[in-house]
Amino acid sequence: MAQENYDSRRIDGKSLAGKIEAQVRQGVEKLKGEKNVTPGLATILVGEDPASRMYVRLKHKACERVGIHAEDRNLPESTTQEELLGVIRELNSRNDVHGILLQLPLPKHLDSKAAMLAIDPAKDADGFHPYNMGKLLIGEEGLVPCTPKGVIRALEEYNVEVQGKHAVVVGHSNVVGKPMAAMLINRNATVSVCHVFTDDLKKYTLDADILVVGTGVKHLIREDMVKEGAVIFDVGITEENGKVYGDVDFDNVVRKASLITPVPGGVGPMTIAILMEHVLTAAKNA
Amino acid sequence: MAQENYDSRRIDGKSLAGKIEAQVRQGVEKLKGEKNVTPGLATILVGEDPASRMYVRLKHKACERVGIHAEDRNLPESTTQEELLGVIRELNSRNDVHGILLQLPLPKHLDSKAAMLAIDPAKDADGFHPYNMGKLLIGEEGLVPCTPKGVIRALEEYNVEVQGKHAVVVGHSNVVGKPMAAMLINRNATVSVCHVFTDDLKKYTLDADILVVGTGVKHLIREDMVKEGAVIFDVGITEENGKVYGDVDFDNVVRKASLITPVPGGVGPMTIAILMEHVLTAAKNA
Q1: Which amino acid positions bind NADP(+), per UniProt (chains A, B) (predicted)?
Q2: Which of A70, A151, A261, B65 could be bridged to A63 by S-S, CB 3.0 to 4.6 A?
């Protein structure tokens, strides 16, 4: 089969993210023009972890692109829980901050659950607050986790029917698997959630019309595990010797998929674009 | 096969509820003795719907059995939203009320979502508040919906292994299906959620080690749809000519199940016992 055919199966996360960002940029300009409000995102980074610094930098760059005001609260490694909560309370109370993002993981001496709980749910850009997770579960999606929301947006953009389809989610993390399953259930897919305790994973993946994989296990999903024509989202990232791998063996699986995200350049850029969308939404609701 | 064999497969919800209630009664006495606190449940019933009145009465009777103080707020059909919210706020503020139960459905002129949101999550005996639903989704189960929690308790009491098993939930309501799925995922089952949009329901139910059905469709699940040895919970109730039917064709399905709840006398009594447990928990946490 010609290489061109496979190219058309690749979900281009960068281009999709660009499209979402263009919409957000328009929305930001409209909000500035009509209400004189500039959406603002405050990121909180405790310590100097290089990966976390990079993620925060990527988010700030995205803010620049779409016209969102970004504020960087880079706190020292030695920050106490009370100091951290103080910063969150201050940001909660400020009218010019519409989204608050606490970059995880925190240094071990800090209680990240308590910190996340302290964020005003209306400013919870990441969608991890229990209140927002609960709204998600009962089908009233507001600020929801960005990565699974990015998958939903991609399904919409590529006109993939979800209702009545068998969607299989591999991985049951709070960040991806569980909210992803809830969003697919809300859209009337038949949803199976698999994970490290699943017996015979292949039995489920082989039956998936839509397959979302987020486990962090390099090339867990091989060609013989997917159904002809499946739509596949690879949310996993493994770094090995400076190279980045997904949970899906893309080069071989692409032969059977009808649509599939690569790693990198798939779900990653979409996640950040959705974060921008959330800040705009929060600013509109404020 | 002898009738006795089938009897041993029946999950006796009444006896299980009795066991839970006995534990609650002990806990209530301990709390009274050690902290001089009597757990209190306030029920709010708006209007005169006979079924709702009966449900409230059953809950008050259970309170009596376990030593929980029960308060009945029976408001007239003409109650306004502001009056209802006023009652909820009053109950939120009272130290002697640890659980608040808003009996649904409310009369149509009232906004039940807004009313449920007004209940202090710490007093949310039914576990329907988004904050509690979100805690459930992220695996920090506190006050959770009573019916699925009753199923979990039965699985524990009957020593049914959940981890790694295929649990199939039929129905995706906010009251049963979605929280049930979340609880089973939290316990590391592989979970499939089916519903009215599912193509080929039988394909899923036939593969279920644990099957929970809550659709309100009389005898939806027939003998040819279940796996030999399955553990089956029937959460459905349909009334027809004064008789009550479950979602599972018990008389025939029992031949294949290893354990199965009847309707009535299965999940129903367990739900109320779990409600009592919740009020005790809320009183302990207060």
Answers
A1: 171-173, 237
A2: A70
**In degrees rounded to 5, what are phi and psi of residue B49?**
-55, 125
Work out the pLDDT band at A1, boundaries 50, 70, 90.
very low
Q: Under an 8 A CB cutoff, do A190 and B195 touch?
A: yes
- Domain, as residue range, for B248: 145-268
Q: Per-residue pLDDT tens for B76-117?
A: 999 999 999 999 999 999 999 999 999 999 999 999 999 999
Give the DSSP H/E element, type plus range, for residue B13: helix B13-35
- Cα–Cα distance between B246 and B231 in angstroms, integer? 15
Q: List, edge to edge, every strand of the sheet that includes B259-260.
A: A259-260, A231-234, A210-213, A166-170, A190-194, B190-194, B166-170, B210-213, B231-234, B259-260
Concerning whether A3 is annotated as a catalytic residue, the answer is no
Amino acid at B110: L
Judged by CB atoms closer than 8 Å, whether chains meet at B137 and A140 is answered as no
Structurally, how many domains does chain A consist of? Answer: 2
CA of A133, closest CA in chain B: separation in Å? 4
Check CB contact under 8 Å for B137 and A174: yes
CB contact under 8 A, B190 and A182: no
Indicate whether B105 and B164 sit together in one domain.
no
Strand partners, A243: A240
- A204 and A101 in a common domain: no
CA A14 to chain centre: 14
Contacts of B140 in chain A (CB under 8 A): 130
In a domain, B23, yes or no: no
> Across the interface, which of A135, A188, A197 has its CB nearest the CB of B197?
A188
B52 is an annotated ligand-binding site residue: no
A138 interfacial to chain B (CB closer than 8 Å): yes
Task: Give the pLDDT score at B4.
Answer: 53
